[in-house]
Amino acid sequence: MSYRLIFEDHYTHGKPYVRAKVVVVNPETGRQTTIEKDFWIDTGFEGGAHVAEAHISEVNLTGIKPRLGTVGLAGGESRRGFFCFAYVQQIGDCELPSPGIEATLILQGSSKHGLLGLEFLRHFVAKFDGPDELLTIMGDHS
Amino acid sequence: MALSVPSEVTVFEERQFTTESPLLLATSIEQESYEFERQHPLKPDLSIATEHRPFLEDRPLRFRNHRDKIEFTDFHFNNPWLPPEALRLLNKLKKAPIRERELVRLMELVAERSSVHFQLSKEKFVAMTFHGQIVEASDTRIGLLRKIQGRKYQEEIFVWRIGSSTFSGRI
């Protein structure tokens, strides 16, 4: 299988960030909201995408009610989180084929940047060049 | 005048003692039953022919005023029996919002009891009510969220992965 380059950029503040768009769609009404921000590519995160809980108000506008659940933090502590179904539609300048990559969106905490985790990364080949601080993401998405 | 203990006090202490003892016993039995149920999942016994009607000695068991369906008004078979701590937190939740730690504890208690009650397989993703009733299940978390997205439920629900203390893993 041949892969093409989706994203390539140097780390920001020593961490591999990408600019991405995550979209939540209400299947009943077609209403949707887009969350666009910097996401840290985090291989220690099992979920798809993670954003601050404050984004719930935007999701609620579509008529979608994110569902309660628990989130395990790195320290082993469990916290309340909200879950909904979303699509990752854009990575850097690359628009992914419609409707996008299906992902679990977790709304929890108050961090200003988001996380993209393993559930998202399984669709791509990601290369973390530590010495050069260069992140490369490749995929077969045309 | 010499001090004396009124007889009512003695009676009160006796009553208090006699009411606590069965409660402790019942809690212990419930815990043992729960542990047994957890370690020994129910399986159909092939030696029992289930297609026959129930019987008593050599005669079929007959009920007075037999009906096709026995209905209970105050008991729901599709809800597990919840431990006292979960019931206490549920009552507290009905009255006012509870602390995040208590909410997480409630979800853990309900999910653990419900997964044993319904004998759900590990790694299954489920959405359930706070009374432990399963409203949706899936093999993947995305599949589960896709199923419940936009749907309205009469009760508040939460999502859980069976056999895991968290739904999403480490963050």
Which sequence of SSEs, written as H and E, runs from N to C of chain B? HEEHHEEHE
- Poorly predicted runs of chain A: none
**Classification by helices and strands of chain B:** alpha+beta
Q: What is the arithmetic mean of pLDDT of chain A?
A: 93
Largest interface chains and counts: A-B, 37 and 25 residues
Quick one: overall form of chain A?
globular
What is the number of beta strands of chain A? Answer: 11
The tally of helices of chain B reads 4
- Give me the side-by-side strand order of the main sheet of chain B: 4-3-5
Rounded to the nearest angstrom, the radius of gyration of chain A is 15 Å
Q: What is the helix fraction of residues of chain A, given as a range?
A: under 10%
User: Which secondary-structure class do the elements of chain A indicate?
Assistant: mainly beta
Low-confidence stretches of chain B: 1-5, 7-21
CATH class (first level) name of chain A: Mainly Beta
The main β sheet of chain A shows up as: 6 strands, mixed, barrel
Question: What's the helix count of chain A?
Answer: 2
Give an overview of the whole structure.
The complex is a heterodimer of chains A (142) and B (171). The radius of gyration of chain A is 15 Å and the shape is globular. In chain A, 6% of the residues lie in helices and 51% in strands. Chain A has helices at 56-60, 118-121; strands at 4-10, 17-25, 32-41, 49-51, 67-72, 78-91, 94-95, 101-107, 114-116, 125-129, 134-139. Chain A contains two helices and eleven strands, in the order ββββαβββββαββ. The model of chain A has no long low-confidence stretch (mean pLDDT 93). Chain B is α+β, with helices and mostly antiparallel strands. Chain B has a domain at 80-161. Chain B has helices at residues 7-39, 84-95, 100-117, 141-148; strands at residues 55-56, 59-60, 125-129, 134-138, 157-161. A three-stranded antiparallel sheet of chain B has the order 4-3-5, with helices on both faces. A two-stranded antiparallel sheet of chain B has the order 1-2. In chain B, strand 1 (55-56) and strand 2 form a beta hairpin. In chain B, helix 2 (84-95) packs across helix 3. Chain B is globular and about 45 Å long. Residues 1-5 and 7-21 of chain B have low confidence and may be disordered. The chains are: A mainly beta (142), B alpha+beta (171). The A-B interface holds A 26-29, 42, 44-48, 50, 63-64, 67-74, 78-81, 83-85, 102-104, 106, 108-109, 115, 117, 119 and B 100, 103-104, 107-108, 127, 141-142, 145-146, 148-150, 156-160, 165-171.
